[in-house]
Here is the input.
Amino acid sequence: QVHLQESGPGLVKPSETVSLTCAVSGGSISRYYWSWIRQPPGKGLEWIGYISYTGNTMYTPSLKTRVTISLDTSNNHFSLKLTSVTAADTAVYYCARDDYRSSPDHFFDYWGQGTLVTVSS
Amino acid sequence: YELTQPPSVSVSPGQTARITCSGAALPEKYVYWYQQKAGQAPVLVIHKDSERPSGIPERFSGSSAGTTVTLSISGVQAEDEADYYCQSADSIGTYVVFGGGTRLTVL
Here is the structure.
């Protein structure tokens, strides 16, 4: 059974950079795509971006200039970096496995439990 | 590109709940449905419009008609109370898009 676990700082100051890591266990990080999705308190889901097993990335246009997703196959984890954060970036951040291999579309069959990132001074 | 869902749906136990998701690209794109219970991560309940992942009860089903896709939950139980999100892609399949979510209340 695939298990994903997010980790990172719970509190970040405005204008700083937040870095999150998603550790994948129960399966290899290779051969799949991997996504980050966030959910502001009391609001809906927002896709941030994905990285393929070959390292190709795609980001949602509204965050494209501030986001980097990277892959570490040797340690079976992938990461999110979001720069110049503001209060609007306060959200629960989820990592998810993107089973793009079995469908013509990106979709998410395994999710982490989520980690709350609060942006506040 | 947007996917439109009703903010809320309410049904009594044992009835059928229907949650719609509308989008201009849906005749060409599949929709995926996620259930999110309070304080928990989303769970995939339907993929490719109407396919049910293993472990998802048979009372969950999906259908598609033109620009609208519907998630149906027959014989609704109290445990089905949750937020439901549809997800698809833009018309060229580049970006992932979520609907705004529908809160299902079991009366």
DSSP finds no helices and eleven strands in chain A. The mean pLDDT of chain A is 95.
